[in-house]
Write a structure and sequence with these properties.
single chain, 4-stranded antiparallel beta sheet, 8 helices, Rossmann fold
Length: 233
């Protein structure tokens, strides 16, 4: 289980996250949603200790995140972080050296499943194929927690469909905690077990897919009722 406690983050005088606490359950896909600038990506970078924060604690199974256990988290940003001058195969070989639990056999299966052109250099790939490559590296680290920051950003509908298939298949490790941010709200319906809505620097509402279904609503319809009702639903 991944926990955030009392996270506060400012950029200059702008308060982005104000004493935010969240829990991400083991074996669930949690979608972190909200308008631009509400702190979705900032939250992920804070978890990964990539940015300084004013305050906050980050815990895995009750233990603080440190350099000793941060490899239990796989972080997939919305921009490529690998060597664009090398091919997908060459970058995967580097990933195998970087990540102690990297599963190359799984990567081979995902390359076939996602139809990734493995002989091309990353800089020659479309944005959709770069997103597929990033996903492969994230899924193959055999991490307890997978953070996906805007995985749908700028990719075509077909790639989104393939992505969702991968996320709802055997490619997700059993019991893996997945946290995903996205602006593509319609895609959440087929992915999310839990939805956390951020607004004005705080958690506006948390609900599960089962909560929405119990009311005869889709996830998107549930979100609509919450925003229209000011969070009272």
């Amino acid at each position: 289980m991944l926990e955030i406690k009392n996270l506060t983050k400012k950029y200059g005088h702008r308060l982005v996250l104000d004493d935010v606490s969240m829990t991400f359950q083991r074996g669930k896909i949690t979608c972190l949603l909200g308008l631009n600038g509400v702190g979705k990506s900032t939250t992920m970078k804070a978890i990964m200790q990539m940015i300084p924060v004013k305050s906050g604690k980050f815990l895995i199974d009750g233990a603080p995140i440190t350099n000793k256990n941060i490899d239990r988290i796989a972080y997939v940003p919305d921009l490529p972080i690998y060597n664009l001058a090398l091919t997908a195969d060459q970058n995967l070989a580097i990933a195998e050296e970087l990540y102690p639990n990297f599963n190359m056999k799984k990567a081979e299966r995902l390359i076939e499943f996602l139809k990734l052109p493995r002989e091309k250099k990353l800089r020659e790939l479309s944005k959709g194929n770069l997103a597929r490559f990033n996903l492969i590296v994230g899924l193959c680290q055999h991490a307890d927690i997978l953070l996906l920051d805007e995985p749908f950003s700028g990719i075509d509908v077909f790639t989104r469909e393939i992505f969702i298939q991968a996320m709802k298949s055997e490619f997700i490790d059993e019991g893996q905690t997945v946290v995903l941010t996205t602006h593509e709200i319609n895609e959440v319906q087929d992915l999310a077990d839990v939805v956390i809505l951020l607004e004005d620097g705080q958690v506006f509402k948390t609900f599960t897919k089962d909560d929405a279904l119990a009311e005869g609503l889709s996830i998107v319809d549930k979100m609509r009722t919450l925003y229209q009702g000011g969070g009272s639903a």
